[in-house]
Amino acid sequence: MEYFYKLKIPGMGHPPGFTLPEVRPFDGSQADTDSWILKVEDLMDKKTIAFFKKECHLIFDKCYIFFIRAGCSTNIHIDGTARDANVWAVNFIQNGIGSKINWYNKTKVHPGTSEPRCGGSLIDTWEEKDLTLARTLTVNHDKLLIRTDAPHKVINCSDNSRWCFSFRGNSRLHKIKSWDEIVKSFKKYI
Ligand SMILES: [Fe+2]
After folding, report:
1. How close is the Cα of 19 to the center of ligand 1, in Å?
2. Is 18 inside any structural domain?
3. CA–CA distance, 153 with 17 (Å, rounded to integer)
4. How many other C-beta atoms lie within 10 A of the C-beta of residue 134?
5. Paired strand residues for 140
6. What gap in Å lies between CA 69 and CA 103, rounded to an integer?
7. CA distances (Å), 26 to each of 33, 35, 94, in order?
8. Distance from residue 86's CA to the centre of ligand 1 (Å)
9. What is the spatial order of strands in the sheet that 4-6 belongs to?
10. Which residues span the domain enclosing 39?
């Protein structure tokens, strides 16, 4: 199984009146990133929500907006902790063409360190030196199904600020689904 799949799906529409959040001034660091949590209907138009429900039998219950300034990158992390990691996300990426996503092999020697993130939940993070690289994706496609319970890092080596709209499955209906099951539900669009 791969860590990501390019999705052949229609583009995402935003609801009327949607604007991108305001970004704070550049903090001068290599880790200048920001994130926000939104309700799905505040970011995705009704037609696109209906498409996922009908075609993939998926209902999203929240979404993140991730911002990474040009030249900056995230730490290595999973989306959650070893006990409760979110397994997958559908990402719509704007201006991130040429950016990279690295996935790393997990090790028993380095279980990761739990740190607070956007919304107050915990995520496990790692130092690059403690893991080995498993796969790199150079983003040349704006719609992706990605695996988020394997250690990963986003590197914005493009010339533009990268915006990612990242949709997460309804926890009661879909969170417990394995990566393989989720990939199957997108079969028609991979
Ligand atoms: Fe992530």
Report:
1. 23
2. no
3. 32
4. 14
5. none
6. 20
7. 9, 14, 19
8. 9
9. 4-6, 143-147, 88-94, 162-169, 60-68, 33-38
10. 4-10+32-189
Q: What separation in Å is there between the alpha carbon of 153 and the centre of ligand 1?
A: 7
Tell me what pLDDT residue 130 has.
Answer: 94
Q: Which residues pair with 136 in a beta bridge?
A: 102
For residue 20, is it within any domain? no
Q: Is residue 22 part of a domain?
A: no
Q: How many angstroms separate the alpha carbon of residue 80 from the centre of ligand 1? A: 9
The model's confidence at residue 74, banded by pLDDT at 50, 70 and 90, is: very high
Residue 174: predicted pLDDT: 60
The 10s digit of each residue's pLDDT in 11-49 is 889 999 999 999 988 888 888 899 999 999 999 999 999
Task: Pull the structure tokens for residue 102.
Answer: 């690295």
C-alpha of residue 188 to centroid of ligand 1, in Å: 25
Indicate the number of domains in the chain.
1
Residue 152 CA to ligand 1 center (angstroms) comes to: 6
What is the CA(94)–ligand 1 centre distance, in A?
16
Secondary structure letter of residue 73 according to DSSP? B
What digits encode the pLDDT tens for the residues 106-138?
888 888 888 887 667 889 999 999 999 999 999
Amino acid at 77: H
* CA 190 to centroid of ligand 1, rounded, Å: 21
- Give residue 156 CA to ligand 1 midpoint distance, Å: 14
